Amino acid sequence: MVLKTFGWSFAVTALGLVAAILYGGWTAFGVVAILSVLEISLSFDNAVVNAGILKKMNAFWQKIFLTIGILIAVFGMRLVFPVVIVAISAQLGPIEAVDLALTDKDQYQQYVTDAHPSIAAFGGMFLLMIFLDFIFEDRDIKWLGWLERPLAKLGKVDMLSVCIALIILLISSMTFGANAHQHGGTHADKAETVLLSGVMGLITYMIVGGLSGYFEDKLEEEEEREHEAEEKAAREGKPKSAVKLAGKAAFFMFLYLEVLDASFSFDGVIGAFAITNDIVLMALGLGIGAMYVRSLTVYLVREGTLDDYVYLEHGAHYAIGALALVLLVTIQYEINEFITGLIGVVLIGASFWSSVRRNRAIAAAEGKAGSDEKTEVSSGV
Fold first, then answer.
1. What is the C-alpha separation between 65 and 75, in angstroms, rounded?
2. What is the pTM of this model?
3. pLDDT tens digit string along 207-246?
């Protein structure tokens, strides 16, 4: 099962590391290996959240996610995206931007650094909305009940998550602008850029997420009809088959997944410049990491891990919230990528351990109940 799921990732790793050696020797090999680990550590929460969405989709769209989706993730976000950012921020043509990335790496890195505030605002707001919508929803299973119960009650207020996100964005842009004025007037325009980019991130979330939810809701009637068919099949001894998203609903859910992956990749792409400014090595390292994230997503779906460890999804969303705030803070201040990755790992690790403890408690309770039942039957006889 592991080889089947991670086979392509292993193959891409081997090819990527060989390509790195041919391109720049053993030094390049080391850089690519470090970038791969960086991407995996920063994106583990991405895999957990993706799995929660992917399990709703049918087999065809899961394959699309693994094939076309990985092309978008590797080549689009890890290779093309940094070049596009430079082309837009420096007002260069695509060819000029590519030439700059290959011939003047220091200047290329500077352009990407200059564009960081708008990137962080867009990605930060998109991820923040995912987190807020999660914690304001009333769920049957709660991880941190003392926190999630009152937040679920607050979530009954319409558009609360949007209001909070806009307030946080406004504070971020005003704080950035105030600090920028202290260092000169040229950064004042970037405060407006942060505000605009953040609003664009919010709009993107609402459009893509809204369309996904709309078409998912349209399938509810069909699911109800098929539910009767499933019950009939169960009575006849035939296996049940859960209704999976297909058609327009699956397409917009796929689109939502790609935008989500793009938002998660922002910190990885920006963080990669702390290690190298060579776009080729960056694409190789982050591309290998992206493959493992994709494979891990599919593994979680096929193994039913999210159903077995029910708090994992909670931990991943708390990690998303932390990452969103980190991105917004990095508009003005630099934060080490190790800290960002460590926060996600700690939160997901804690949610996993809580899930294990919950499963043990349930098993112990069931075992005790079964033992008591046997004792009663024995005494009755």
1. 14
2. 0.72
3. 877 776 676 666 565 556 666 666 666 666 655 555 455 5
